[in-house]
Specification:
The complex is a heterodimer of chains A (324) and B (324). Chain A starts with a helix and ends with a helix. Chain A is an alpha/beta fold and 324 residues long. Chain A is built from 11 helices and 9 strands. In chain A, the strands form 2 sheets. Chain A has a 7-stranded parallel β-sheet, with helices on both faces. Chain A has a two-stranded parallel sheet with strand order 7-8. In chain A, helix 2 crosses helix 9. By secondary structure, chain B is an alpha/beta fold. Chain B has a single domain, classed as 3-Layer(aba) Sandwich (Rossmann fold), CATH 3.40.50.720. Helix content of chain B is 56%, strand content 11%. Chain B has a 7-stranded parallel β-sheet with strand order 3-2-1-4-5-6-7, sandwiched between helices. In chain B, strand 5, helix 6 and strand 6 form a beta-alpha-beta unit. Chain B is globular. Classes of the chains: A alpha/beta (324), B alpha/beta (324). Chains A and B meet through helix 5, helix 6 and helix 11 of A and helix 5, helix 6 and helix 11 of B.
């Protein structure tokens, strides 16, 4: 009796341990650390919002920072603001990410890039039937094609760099890039697209010790968010309201920590962490501990995901019933 | 002893039964059937490949079919071919999906649409360093923005239709829309984007009894595939070799069956089925049985995925080692 109890206990304890060892052996790409101190961090959309917060945080941590945006005025203001709060000077360069030649010129004038943070983004929430095609195209051009322009411009330099330490290409996605929500057809399309780019890109650049990250912040307290809120459909607020609003400096810290630890998915709060687990899909996982958590929680998280669908579609039904 | 065995058996059977009952109660949107016989099916990219085969099969099943493509001659050939093999006449309309006004005109000149199949697509593979930005833009414009144009053009008619039976909007994605693979940055970005669009769109249109489907075929035996394979990077071929090529008529059967059963994710073979489970994420699941399968298998499927990634990245490492 005691023997079989003991063997049973041993099995219960050993199985997870063997599994953890198995995971440690097979996770690819292998874990990596990407230092940013004294290295060149290039941030687009860096004159306001999350980009500005990341620039400030990176400068504080000792990185050499370049911020890119369209408006030279806003760039100057951002530069001054960062100097006042950190004493550090960041470089500024003006370009429209939708213009490949301008991006190429900006990237080449900036010098070798160690951490490229494609953070530029526009977002306007509207039902597809009410949204202008011009606005839809704008989101996909800036958020998705703009990012292709940046990566294509920066890649040759990164691949041929003299300093062969690990470097990083990071994309600012969104929780709207993990799940499509009422009102976000265009924004979600652009952010989901970033994931397709990132998964394929990681395979193409791993041999050059380049590491890709996707950052998934929730609604963040920025000027862009304030703008978006003015015109958001009510149902979007109801459904998206389930995730909280974060401060941009909190998001910046999570983003940089994630980039430094070479994580492929970088969530910014607990809901985001659960979302990352639920949407792991076929994305790479560089931490065997996280892989373990993904495997054991996958089933329960799918149940939670289905419950969320039940809530959301319930809200939609209720709202339409009221409208009649 | 007998009581203990009985309780044990009850413990094993009851939780799954309770879970199944729970799932049947909570899955949203609710299951639906979408008939296509005598209904109007509008297929883009319908003069060749999968689209052409879809048109032929739908016509054989008694649907009224319209096919859209750019080239009028190819459309005429397709129309003749379908008449010869099924005796049925399909309507043809020529337009470039990238041109919203042309698409709007084409949609409005056709009968009210019951099943819109956004099947147009271009794909070329190549490492991002080697792809021209022009080619990246083309894939995203045709595959993603083209689909936005189609949906936006067709939505008003669908929402205001007199026949209030369930209707469908289906997007032809790809296994490259489930996982980003070496050489497919732009194609994967465009197909992942379709998913963001689809998830958000379903929430926006459910109240009008419009049902969204995403179809995920593997490499399918079409003229386009033959063209693409000739220029595929070697590593893409190595990694993609793990997936088999399907025949067009098999893909077509799965596609139409998926649309008729109102499924959100439509997979075409066993690998695709595993891929759908792995990438269920926060997508809706309209079948409580599939939801059950997703929940109990997602953990194991994630392990299988991690092994696949180990294999992909191993191939990449090996190939680069050989190149030196």
């Amino acid at each position: 009796m005691a023997d079989s109890d003991l063997s049973f206990l041993a099995l219960c304890a050993l199985l997870p341990i063997f599994f953890l060892i198995f995971l440690k052996l097979i996770v690819r790409p292998r874990p990596v650390k990407v230092p940013i101190k004294s290295r060149h961090v290039f941030i687009t959309g860096g004159s306001s919002g999350i980009g500005l917060a990341i620039a400030r945080q990176a400068a504080t941590e000792g990185a050499r920072v370049t911020i890119l945006a369209r408006s030279l005025d806003k760039l100057e203001e951002a530069k001054t603001s960062i100097r006042l709060s950190t004493g550090i000077d960041v470089a500024i360069v003006s370009a429209d990410v939708c213009d490949f030649e301008a991006v190429k010129a900006a990237v080449e004038s900036a010098g070798p890039i160690d951490v490229l943070i494609c953070n530029q983004g526009v977002f306007v929430a509207y039902e597809l039937e009410n949204q202008d095609m011009k606005e839809i195209k704008g989101m996909i051009d800036v958020n998705l094609i703009g990012t292709f322009n940046l990566v294509k411009a920066a890649l040759p330099g990164m691949k041929n760099r003299s300093d062969r330490k690990p470097v990083s290409i990071a994309f600012m996605s969104s929780q709207a890039g993990q799940v499509g929500i009422y009102g976000y057809t265009a924004y979600s399309a652009s952010k989901f697209g970033l994931r397709g780019l990132a998964e394929a890109l990681q395979q193409e650049v791993i041999a050059d010790n380049i590491h890709v990250s996707l950052i998934f912040p929730p609604d963040t307290d920025t000027p862009g968010f304030a703008e978006e809120n003015k015109k958001k459909p009510q149902l979007t607020s109801i459904i998206a309201g389930s995730s909280g609003v974060m401060q941009s400096d909190e998001v910046a810290k999570k983003a940089l920590n994630g980039i430094k630890s070479g994580s492929f998915f970088i969530p910014c709060n607990f809901e985001g962490f659960l979302l990352s687990l639920a949407t792991a899909g076929l994305s790479p996982q560089r931490s065997y501990l996280m892989a373990f958590v993904e495997v054991i929680s996958a089933g329960i998280l799918r149940i939670a995901g289905l419950c969320f669908q039940w809530t959301w579609y319930g809200s939609i039904e209720k709202w339409h019933a009221q409208e009649k | 002893m007998a009581a203990a065995s009985l309780s044990f058996i009850a413990l094993c059977i009851l939780p799954p039964i309770f879970l199944l009952i729970f799932l049947k109660l909570i899955i949203r949107p609710r299951p639906v059937r979408i008939p296509i016989t005598s209904r109007h099916v509008f297929i883009t990219g319908g003069s060749r490949g999968i689209g052409f085969a879809l048109a032929r099969q739908a016509a054989a099943e008694g649907a009224r079919v319209t096919i859209l493509a750019r080239n009028l001659e190819q459309l005429q050939e397709a129309k003749t071919s379908i008449r010869l093999s099924t005796g049925v006449d399909v309507a043809i309309v020529s337009a470039d999906v990238r041109d919203f006004d042309a698409v709007k005109h084409a949609v409005e000149s056709a009968d009210p649409i019951d099943v819109l199949i956004c099947n147009q697509g271009v794909f070329s593979s190549g490492e991002l360093v080697n792809l021209e930005i022009k080619e990246v833009k083309r894939m995203i414009d045709v595959n993603l923005i083209g689909s936005f144009n189609l949906v936006k053009a067709a939505l008003p008619g669908m929402k205001n239709r007199s026949d209030r039976r369930p209707v469908s909007i289906a997007f032809m994605s790809s296994q490259a829309g489930q996982v980003g693979v070496y050489g497919y940055t732009a194609y994967a970005a465009s197909k992942f984007g379709l998913r963001g669009l689809a998830e958000a769109l379903q929430q926006e249109v459910i109240a009008d009894d419009i049902h969204v489907s995403l179809i995920f075929p593997p490499d399918t035996d079409t003229p386009s595939l033959t063209e693409e394979k000739e220029r595929r990077p070697p590593l893409t071929s190595i990694i993609a070799a793990s997936s088999s090529i399907m025949r067009v008529d098999e893909v077509v059967k799965k596609t139409l069956n998926g649309i008729k059963s109102g499924s959100f994710s439509v997979s075409c073979n066993f690998k695709g089925f595993l891929g759908s489970i792995a990438t269920a994420g926060l997508s809706p699941q309209r079948s409580y049985l599939m939801a059950f399968v997703e929940i109990i298998s997602s953990g194991v499927v994630r392990i299988v995925v991690l092994c696949h990634l180990w294999s992909f990245y191993g191939s990449i490492e090996k190939w680069h080692a050989q190149e030196k």
